[in-house]
Design goal:
With 611 residues, the chain is α+β, with helices and mostly antiparallel strands. Helices cover 42% and strands 13% of the residues.
């Protein structure tokens, strides 16, 4: 095969042995890479009902045929496994030199299984693959541990690693790299911790074999130039994701505030993009990046921290903070301990509201930075009653607290909602509801489109737009394993990607061909959720939290707004129909057969009757 190497690494921590395997060509043709490789592996190799923290779960690091090559914005690696936080499919991608070095070493993906008796890290140097003792790294934060690995193995080496959050099995621990990069919100770092795997290091010297390297190099140069010349590129480089701050506060009115009780924040100006620009000390980017979006400030401890919109929204306005440097400190602690900033911010806000309502013994008020900082430490080390409780996420915390707290546990399928309030954004609420990993925006960020086309309507066109975006953002980009920002933020045209794909692989696929693979992955991932939930699966799994339906906004131009339950049910029904799923949200036999997934039917029919 060209473009793909056709090889994977299988590393077993129980035996401390690793081997190189060839995978069938059909896997690449049917699933392309990244998310596709991950879900097919989990379906085939992780039996239904497997405990996500058991040795039988897999940790997968997967690339696609474009990942790590010399072209714009492909320094990405997808990490995946059965989620400790949600119990369903979990993944995420992060910018890292690991993608470059794994391809140079000659592999398309990595499967880690088993559990070591003592902490280990995996070292990949071309054909030499070995486990190394990690006792000297265990217990250290990601900044210190990564610096040690780079010192030992060389500058520019590819790393994936965890902090104390992953070691302590905080259920939303992430995988970290390059000091400021993170991925795997549903607990992919937790899986590494459960296996006593501190890190993976890759250092390769070869190059992937491409179908037409001359054309690929020509396209690469043209692509880099095209992005550089886009009118929107300079402002994106200057502001990064924080440029959305003023829009969500003053145009969209969707800024998460006080645990998603409101969509506008009275102190938003203290956390704004302008403040970030005033405080900025450096800018970072991923490998192969053309639009570096990692803007850094000094926090209250004088330490450098990389900010983006989601982190500032969930750790800032959502918890009532009023100082961007304080938000930066919480962000840096989360990064160093290796936990998801979104779920951390949502968990702190949940605790603040539970305290306000007298549902917990601990007292923590909105905007109390010192207590939020202490709670962050407690969560990441699983210390104290509240720290232990919140380390499992807001859904489990609400189940244990009871007393109506589930109504303000702002999560879907167990994953905390990212930075957009949906009291008056039904299309975005649908996007969160049907995201493949739980409530995350990356697959269908429809919010700006929705407001431009009429936010109040429960219209079929919104469903079409969610599916269109999923095919791209959650499908094509996740399978090729490429950053979506050049397309979204600066207008890099989509037709570049089939051209790169053809030069790399020799396959002259259209965008529609890539979308079909996306649809195949979406139906298989949904089937995986149903298989794992068994008899407990229902459309309620796709439903946003009760707050958005029952508690109207009280501030801003949209005061009085709530989601309409009948209207949302209509959107969800249209979505199921257009996906070829039945009224329970389960793929039909006809859909599975049409997508080449008929082999999944017997396993599914062990837990549900298919239509």
């Amino acid at each position: 095969m060209k473009g793909w190497t056709g090889k994977l690494i299988r590393a077993n921590l129980t035996t401390l042995k690793a081997k190189i395997e060839k995978y069938p060509k059909d896997l690449a043709l049917e699933f392309v890479g990244g998310r596709g490789f991950a879900i097919k592996t989990l379906w085939d190799e992780v039996p239904a009902g497997t405990d996500p923290l058991s040795p039988e779960n897999k940790f997968i690091a997967a690339l696609g045929p474009l990942a790590g090559l010399n072209m714009p914005n492909v320094g990405k690696t997808l990490v995946a496994g059965k989620s400790p936080l949600t119990g369903g499919y979990g993944d995420g991608n992060l910018g890292t030199n690991f993608s470059v070095h794994l391809r140079r070493s000659g592999y398309d993906f990595l499967i880690v299984e088993g559990k070591a008796k003592t902490p280990q890290y995996l070292l990949i140097e071309d054909q030499d693959i070995s486990f190394r003792d990690a006792d000297h790294l265990w217990g250290k934060g990601t900044f210190e541990a990564e610096a040690k690995l780079v010192k030992d193995h060389g500058r520019g080496v590819g790393t994936l690693l965890i902090g104390q959050g992953g070691e302590k099995l905080v259920k939303y621990a992430v995988v970290r790299s390059l000091l400021g990069r993170a991925g795997g919100r549903p607990g992919m770092g937790t899986i590494m911790g459960s296996k006593h795997l501190k890190a993976i290091v890759a250092k390769g010297t070869g190059m992937p074999e491409l179908h037409d390297p001359d054309t690929f190099e020509k396209l690469s140069k043209e692509g880099y130039k095209d992005i550089k010349d886009k009118p929107a590129t300079p402002s994106w480089k200057e502001q990064g994701t924080m440029q959305v701050w003023d829009w969500v506060q003053n145009v969209g009115y969707v800024l998460p505030t006080y645990n998603f009780q409101e969509g506008v924040y009275e102190h938003a100006d203290k956390l704004s993009c302008e403040v970030m620009q005033e405080l900025r000390v450096k800018t970072l980017g991923c490998p192969r990046c053309t639009i570096r979006c990692g803007h850094c400030i000094e926090d209250t401890d004088g330490q450098i921290v990389e900010l983006d919109y989601e982190n500032v929204a969930l750790l800032g306005s959502n918890t009532g903070m009023r100082d961007l440097r304080e938000v930066g400190t919480l962000n840096r602690l989360a990064d160093d301990y290796g936990v998801d900033t979104i779920s951390l911010g949502a968990s702190i806000a949940f605790a603040m509201e539970a305290s306000e309502k007298g549902l917990i013994d601990e007292k923590i008020e909105w905007g109390d930075f010192q207590k939020a900082r202490q709670l962050t430490e407690d969560i990441c080390h699983r210390r104290g009653k509240l720290g232990q409780l919140l380390a499992d996420g807001t859904r489990i915390a609400a189940e244990k607290i009871g007393k109506g707290s589930m109504d303000f546990a702002m999560q879907i399928k167990g994953l905390e909602i990212s930075g957009y309030d949906c009291h008056a954004a039904p299309g975005m609420a649908l996007s969160f509801g049907v995201s493949q990993i739980g409530a995350h925006h990356k697959e269908a960020w429809i919010i700006t489109w929705e407001i431009e086309h009429g936010r109040e309507g429960y219209l079929e066109g919104k469903v079409d737009e969610v599916i269109r975006l999923q095919r791209l953002r959650g499908g094509m980009f996740e399978n090729l394993v490429s950053c979506r920002f050049p397309w979204i933020e600066v207008g890099f045209e989509l037709d570049w990607y089939p051209r790169y794909f053809a030069a790399a692989t020799g396959l002259k696929w259209s965008l529609e061909d890539l979308y079909r693979v996306s649809d195949r992955c979406y139906s298989l991932i949904r089937s995986y959720w149903v298989r794992e939930a068994g008899g407990d699966w229902s459309p309620q799994m796709d439903m946003p939290p009760a707050r958005w339906f029952n508690e109207p906004l009280t501030k801003g131009p949209l005061a009085g707004s709530t989601l309409d339950r009948d209207g949302f049910d209509k959107l969800l029904s249209w979505y199921y129909e257009k996906r070829g799923w039945d009224d329970r949200g389960i793929p039909t036999k006809a859909t599975l057969k049409s997508l080449g997934l008929e082999w999944a039917i017997p396993d599914l029919e062990k837990v549900v009757k298919l239509n």
